[in-house]
Amino acid sequence: MSQYLPLAVKNVSITLENILNAMAKQPSYKQEYFDRIMALYRQQGIGDFLVSNSSELLFSKLTLGVQASIDFLTNADTGEPAASKITTFFDAVCCQDFPAMEKLAQLSPRKINSRIEYEEDYLYCRILMDVFGLRKNQEDIQDLLEEFEALHADNPDHRYTVLMALLEKDGDAFHEVLEFLIDAYKDHYVDGGDMYAGTQDEAIILAHVSIEIIALVQLARMQGIATYPEYALAPKTALASCSVPEPPPGAWLHIDSRRSFSFQKP
Q1: 255 domain residue, yes or no
Q2: Which of 116, 174, 184, 255 is the most buried (most CB within 10 A)?
Q3: Domain assignment present for 132
Q4: HSE-up of 62 (CA within 13 Å, CB side)?
């Protein structure tokens, strides 16, 4: 793990603080702004977890990102949100927060926002929301599945494979595709990754833990698929039961400042 991790966490936290201060003065419910807020809360949570090994710190930051998403979806103009951009659905899954999963699924668009998302991205997230957030059965989402299958036939997509493994409760298929997804994630972030477009601070933090991998393991457990205690990118402590209480209304707009020169473990 990088010796620069504490500094990377501090930098991410200061960036988030700056954005939230501006948001508090002049709220703007744009997808691009909340993409950044959701991502930074996730990075801060993972960073705090890596520094402290405290799942409580991880979950507490993820819940704030989830709260920000719900606020965004509640207040944004029609046509602004995109279902595939509400990545905090995976954060809610990690926290085993079923009411939040349901709320995000209810509020997220039921039509593709072709301005800012691809069809396969929309279908992957929308189907997961419908099945695990709204508890729909496979017959209820058959049209969406057929659309995704057609796209998968033309351009193989491992997200379709993991989705079907979850729906069919196929443990062998799930673990086979999960291994591929883990390797792909690692390749993306190693040494910044050839395809990586984020900051070095983000890469230092995100190279070690994947919220989506953790979420997929939690979804597999919800489906009764036998899983291991931990996986690469999904440490045992991050797969623990979440006991973090729901934050008070508007809590996502306020974080403790970390602008001091010295960095203390959270």
Answers
A1: no
A2: 174
A3: yes
A4: 32
Give residue-wise pLDDT tens across range 200-259: 888 889 989 999 999 999 999 999 999 999 999 999 999 999 989 999 999 999 988 887
Residue 150 counted as domain residue: yes
Picking from 66, 24, 72, the residue whose alpha carbon sits closest to that of residue 45 is 66
**Residue 198 backbone dihedrals phi, psi, to 5 degrees:** -85, -170
- Least confident window among 16-30, 72-86, 87-101, 198-212: 198-212
Q: What is the mean pLDDT of residues 143-164?
A: 97
pLDDT of residue 175: 98
Of 243, 245, 246, 216, residue with least CA distance to 231: 216
Q: Is the pLDDT of residue 146 over 90?
A: yes
Average pLDDT over residues 90-98: 97
Element (H, E) at 183: helix 171-189
| Residue 187 scores a pLDDT above 90 | no
Angstrom CA distances, 148 to 158, 161, 258, stand at: 11, 10, 44
Residue 176 pLDDT greater than 70, yes or no: yes
Residues pairing with 107 in the sheet = none
Q: For residue 191, what are its two tokens?
A: 């040494």
Enter the DSSP assignment of 251: G
**Residue 262 domain flag:** no
Which of 62, 53, 127, 71 lies closest to 95 in space, CA to CA? 62
Would the pTM of this model clear 0.85, i.e. be above it? yes
Residue among 230, 125, 224 at smallest CA distance from 168: 224
Range of the domain at 201: 5-249
Cβ(173)–Cβ(198) under 8 Å? no
| Pairwise CA distance, residues 128 & 162, whole Å | 11
Residues ≥6 apart with Cβ < 8 Å to 66? 88, 91, 92, 95, 97, 100, 104
